[in-house]
UniProtKB/TrEMBL annotation:
Entry superkingdom: Bacteria
One Pfam family from the record: Rieske
Region ranges (Disordered): 444-466
CDD domains, A to Z: RHO_alpha_C_NDO-like
Family: Belongs to the bacterial ring-hydroxylating dioxygenase alpha subunit family.
Gene3D superfamilies recorded: Naphthalene 1,2-dioxygenase Alpha Subunit, Chain A, domain 1 (3.90.380.10), Rieske [2Fe-2S] iron-sulphur domain (2.102.10.10)
Stored InterPro entries: ARHD_Rieske_2Fe_2S, RHO_NdoB-like_C, Rieske_2Fe-2S, Rieske_2Fe-2S_sf, Ring_hydroxy_dOase_asu_C_dom, Rng_hydr_dOase-A
UniProt keyword list: 2Fe-2S, Aromatic hydrocarbons catabolism, Dioxygenase, Iron, Iron-sulfur, Metal-binding, NAD, Oxidoreductase
Rieske domain span: 66-163
Listed name of the protein: Aromatic ring-hydroxylating dioxygenase subunit alpha
Span of the signal peptide: none
């Protein structure tokens, strides 16, 4: 089998003006008063306050590793994909050297986006305002009327602002603005064991199919992220009608499946993953299920993963990337203010699976967790209804109960790290503990002398994308 390597971007060179973030000062709120996580209590204000939203953009999103795209979206030099890191528009592109890089999608002249397409292929990105043009390595290659600039104007210093670090894990591409962030694998912590139940099933890896589905919901992004980290509790209530439709009899799943045993993993870095352990808790497509060689997967990944995280589970990589292993759904909750989020969702499949199996996975995913999916619509309605009452004076300042499973977490000797019962708020408490700690810690750019990334040198990491 031949392979075409995707090379991941080296640390960017420093450019003019990239130390300006050190001068950005906004008032900060001590969010400690909004939590008593030892007793499972959360102040609802964190979902609606505009000042807190501004603070989380600079202290949660700017310092964290954020999901950008899947390696399979980039097949040849010039391929690009437009996305967001928090509220910042970003271009991910493959250069002539097949290296993936990510840049702020903003012209260094007046700040307009230089790429207004969702995805495609391009040799250069040209701002439609004044015509400044950049190549796929971010270099400024054309300035109209350049002779009218002063002698001290150095064109090579005004390239696109590049992320401080970019890396991938099992085909998932992440980046951060933070030059001081730990390596991606370290930032994923113990969640990698659980992620691999979805990402490492096939020796050839994974790919995304069917494009990106996008929709907007009224609701704070944290409502979705925490649910995917921790909330199996809502399934039998919110999705009762969907479970009835999905069951073979049309009357709903059997009691032992409804009340399935399971575990919930809580990572100290804010990640979470919940999963049933009943052998029939696999609401996957019949074609996909029939194709799956569970014995081979037991050999590859072990019994504990096949019987646990590979079932109908759910997970979140802090802060805003979530996934559903059995559905093959991966998604990002892009924040659009304290009251709105934009959901971007992909279908991920095993690369070596036959085309008919891949297509069955795609269709099944759309029917269940696409924008019109029978489960997805229930979730969206819940989050929007929760947000609808968040601005009332009394309702908006009430204390919320996150006590389920409190004190029941342990190391069970089967699943790595700290786990609790499936029905638990444990991973949600862990999610908010991480959010609280980041919100109360000045980010690298708020420290004296901080920059967006003064780094040098070349590194590369080659990935097989065949």
């Amino acid at each position: 089998m031949t392979s075409t390597p995707v090379r991941l971007g080296a640390p960017p060179a420093r450019r003019v003006g990239e130390d300006r973030l050190a001068g950005v000062r906004e008032p900060s709120v001590d969010v400690g008063a909004y939590f008593d996580l030892d007793h499972g209590l959360v102040d609802r204000t964190i979902f609606s306050d505009t000042a807190l939203y501004r603070q989380e953009l600079r202290r949660v999103f700017a310092p964290s590793w954020l999901f950008l795209a899947h390696e399979s979206q980039f097949k040849k030099p010039g391929d690009f994909f437009s996305t967001y890191m928090g509220a910042d528009p970003v271009i991910v592109t493959m250069g002539k050297d097949r290296r993936l890089r990510a840049f702020l999608n903003a012209c260094r002249h007046r700040g307009m986006r230089v790429c207004r397409a969702d995805e495609g292929a391009a040799k250069a990105f040209t701002c439609s305002y004044h015509g400044w043009s950049y190549d796929t390595s971010g270099k400024l290659i054309n300035v109209p009327n350049g002779e009218d600039y002063p002698a001290h104007f150095e064109q090579d210093q005004w390239g696109l602002i590049e992320v401080a670090q970019l890396d991938s894990y099992q085909g998932l591409v992440f980046a951060t603005w933070n030059p001081e962030a730990p390596p991606l694998r370290e930032a994923l912590g113990g969640l990698t064991w659980y992620l691999d139940a979805m990402l490492d099933r096939d020796p050839e890896g994974t790919e995304v199919i069917g494009g990106v589905h996008k929709w907007v919901l009224e609701g704070n992004w944290k409502l979705a992220a925490e649910q995917f980290a921790s909330d199996w509790y809502h399934v039998n209530i919110s999705h009762a009608s969907a479970l009835m439709v999905m069951s073979p009899t049309g009357k709903g799943p059997k009691t032992e499946i409804v009340q399935t045993p399971g575990r919930q993993y809580t990572d100290p870095l804010g990640h979470g993953h919940g999963f049933p352990t009943h052998p029939k808790s696999r609401f996957d497509d019949r074609i996909v299920h029939a194709h799956t060689d569970y014995e081979a997967l037991r050999e590859r990944l072990g019994d504990a993963r096949v019987e646990g995280p590979m079932t109908t589970g759910h997970g979140t990589v802090f802060p805003n990337f979530s996934y559903l292993p059995v559905n093959g759904s991966i998604r990002v909750w892009h924040p659009k203010g304290p009251d709105k989020m934009e959901v971007w969702a992909w279908t991920i499949v095993d690369k070596s699976a036959p085309d008919e199996v891949k297509d069955a996975q795609r269709i099944y995913n759309l029917r269940t967790f696409g924008p019109s999916g029978i489960f997805e619509q229930d979730d969206g309605e819940n989050w929007s209804e929760v947000q609808a009452t968040a601005h009332g004076f009394v309702a908006g300042s009430m204390t919320l109960n996150y006590q389920m499973g409190l004190g029941l977490e342990s190391e069970d000797g089967i699943h790595p790290g700290t786990t609790g019962r499936l029905y638990s708020d444990g991973a949600a408490r862990g999610f908010y503990a991480r959010w609280r700690d980041l919100m109360n810690t000045p980010a690298w750019h708020e420290k004296a002398g901080g920059t967006t990334g003064e780094t040098s040198g070349e590194t590369s990491c080659e990935k097989d994308t065949s």
